[in-house]
């Protein structure tokens, strides 16, 4: 019979740690308060407040349910092991081993929650992709990145809303703006901020030569009350309207309804074309502009975040955070964490999570050593 005593002790330690970083005691005290709020008949008289309460209630209940489930499964594993030893039952022992392995994996996933320590990490994310050096290849590369993040969001069960896209002249896109909604979306996507480099045989080169292309990814947190946190003077804005572009759809029309707003003092640009009217697109732009300006102020206050932002770098050689090499070999490598994959096709099809996780751990290691 295998001795699983140490494995079970390790699970108990992990369960105790999870109780700490999930703040289980605080959540148990908070849940009845939220249940009372949810039961108020006038809750939805203030729709914004109701959404905040509902979101918090769901998150608190999910975390408590998960912790209680894991706690019960640790108890089950201990019971199975004791029974297997008392009865000399190899089948019960195998069940205990299998359950211990499953719990080890689940605790590993749960531990990632402890890496999300920022004020907005738990919320949604407003993202941008811009093509850089590399001509048509970079525009095609920007579209490939857009597809990668869309598939990643779908695989996570997150929402994905494309708010603006500018098509390239021959292929691909020059830029795209989109919102990814889901718990910890911003926490995850911080890992992607910076310049991404692609090396491949160019499909746009008649001589089939190898080309290098660059595109940048930027992200800011979706902040519900951003407009209340920043003052925007109309005199500081340049508003341009243009005709919506892209593949079409029920929200894309043929009038000059798309809106682009430039905040002149900071050079911040936002655009939106997927709403039904110019007025709605402008309102959405102002909302996103407020978020970006709040984030800019936050970056100024947090030197560490500013050093990681990567947006000030030129989108060209030497500035990349990650390289995706399709030729002459197959590899994706993150220049910060050192994480690699020999399956670039899988990464480009949305399997970018391991790189995000590696960056989160790399960042925590750097914070711990400072």
Features:
370 residues; alpha+beta; Methane Monooxygenase Hydroxylase, Chain G, domain 1; Alpha-Beta Plaits; 3-stranded antiparallel β-sheet; 11 helices; flat
Plain-language structure description:
The chain is of the alpha+beta class and 370 residues long. The chain has two domains: 5-115, Methane Monooxygenase Hydroxylase, Chain G, domain 1 (Up-down Bundle), CATH 1.20.58; 125-369, Alpha-Beta Plaits (2-Layer Sandwich), CATH 3.30.70. 48% of the residues lie in helices and 20% in strands. It contains eleven helices and eleven strands. Strands 2-3-1-5-4-9-10-11 form an eight-stranded mixed beta sheet. The protein has a three-stranded antiparallel beta sheet with strand order 6-7-8, covered by helices on one side. Helix 1 (5-21) runs parallel beside helix 4 and helix 8 (278-301) packs across helix 9. The radius of gyration is 24 Å and the shape is flat. Residues 247-254 and 308-313 have low confidence and may be disordered.
Structure summary:
This protein is of the alpha+beta class and 370 residues long.
Task: List the SSEs and their pairings.
Layout: H1 5-21, H2 24-38, H3 47-87, H4 90-111, E1 125-131, H5 135-156, E2 159-167, E3 173-181, H6 185-189, E4 194-201, E5 210-221, H7 226-229, E6 237-242, E7 258-263, E8 268-272, H8 278-301, H9 303-309, E9 320-325, E10 331-334, E11 340-341, H10 344-348, H11 353-369
Parallel strand pairs: 4-9
Antiparallel strand pairs: 1-3, 1-5, 2-3, 4-5, 6-7, 7-8, 9-10, 10-11
Helix pairs in contact: 1-3, 1-4, 2-3, 3-4, 8-9
